[in-house]
Amino acid sequence: MKSWLMIKLYIFTLLLPAMMFAQSSLISNIPIPKTYIQNLDPYPCDENCMQLYLDNGMIFSFLAHAEGKLENEQHDEVRKMSISILNLGSYIIGDKIRIALLLPYKIIGRYASSTTNASFAYLIAKNHSFELKSYKIESEDIDDIKKALEVISNDGFNYVIAPFTQKGADAVSLINPEINIFFPTINKKDVTSTSSYLYYGGIDYRAQSDMLLKEAVSPLVIFYDDTTIGNKLSLYEEMAYLTSSDPQEKKSVVKFAIPKRTTNLEKQLKDNKSIVEGSFFINTPIVKTGMIMSQLTLYETNATKVLSTQINYDPLILSITQYEDRKNMIIANSITQNNSILIETNSLLGNDIVYDWINYTTTVGVDYFYSHATRADREYEIKLQDNQMIYPIELLNPSRYRFVKYFSRFKE
Question: In the CATH scheme, what is the code of domain 97-204+336-381?
Answer without folding.
Answer: 3.40.50.2300
